[in-house]
Amino acid sequence: MQPSPKGVQTILPLSRHSALLTIAMVAAGFGLTLLVFYPGVWTYDARFVYQDIAKGFRGDWQSPVMVVLWSLIDPIAPGSASLFLLIVTLYWLAFGLLALTLARRSVWLAALVLLLALSPPAFVFIGTLWRDVLFACLWLLAAVLAFVVADRAAKLRVPIQALALGLLALGVLLRPNALIAAPVLAAAIVWPAQFSWKRAAIIFVPAGIGLFALVQVVYYGALGAVRQHPLHPIMVFDIAGISHFTQQNQFPVTWTASENALLTTGCYQPTEWDIYWRFDPCQFVMKRLESDKIFGTPALAEVWQRAVTHHPVAYLQHRASFMWNFLAGGANLTMWVQDIDDPPNLPFADRPAFVALKAIHDVLKPTPLFRPGSWLLVCIAACALAWRRRDTPAGTFAIGACGSAAVYTLTFFAVGVASDFRYAYWAVLAGLTGAIAIAQRRGETLSF
Question: Residues 6 or more apart from 81 whose CB is under 8 A from it?
Fold first, then answer.
């Protein structure tokens, strides 16, 4: 078939053979995921959320929406299995829809995207109960849905776009720091056939404000969440970092000589704020801030503002050190194996499929595949390659997914308090799918 002129869309037929083969591969992938990970990998964050369900407590530290969502689906398969099945279903639904769409051009292209769904940087996390994984799957499905109906009549397209925007909003409610990245993906959902930077710029501020208002209304209005001051760990981490780089205590507390030496010299690592909260010998910082009733009060925000404005260079040194470790650090947390010797928490640790996957992970972990910086670069490159094709659904999909993933990853420069690889998981999924989407020829619309 000759390529259509620019702006003219040709809907390619999907053969029954290609459809059945693609569906069979998706089913096989779903089954393999169950074989490896069922009933899901508990993490400390997941346990906190599940305990809140039992207590009927809704705080804003782990997202009250996560608590409510899990409580709604929990009767289906109580415990970890309910959330695990939701994540896996969203994951394979998104990859499956994308593969069926691509299969209109080539079953091999569809097979490739499904093989990429099994690639270690994506697959090793899909069984882990982290809201970062759920967030990424929601946004991937939102982007794919918009791509699938990009050329369809409004009667079909508009309801699917509304669903995609709902998934995008749900992702923000799970991860509020996605506020800045959300308008990029929203633009690709609202105008899926052509990405316009002017339209994206116009909606950027209103969309951000609207989503911020949504978080406030849902968290504290509809759900009555208890304020646990989730921004304060960022402030503690920043103040401690500034204290280290200035070699002067910036906290409104007088420490002992040994504590002051630890604070300015011994404690600081550009890895995570937990050093000052849960680990000896530096947990004295949070103990003192809590006992003196500084943490969780406006006083801490005032101290943070003063430290940042008086020592901007030290603040940037701290944030740059953290970001470099996050993007390029080799010791960052990747696959969850902390409970490898605890069968109740990791009941599938001795399954041959899981053992094989862990062995592959262990070999690949030191490589760029498990560096967030690599996936940030993949997303930036995909956006650059897609820019000339921004007047097509494929280019719009790549820019919306990879552009939002790049922006989201970069937000951790300001708000990151830990350097786990999971925080870049949306960049992994966006980079994999965006790269495949822009491989198709101009003029072919590969939708249902």
Answer: 38, 39, 40
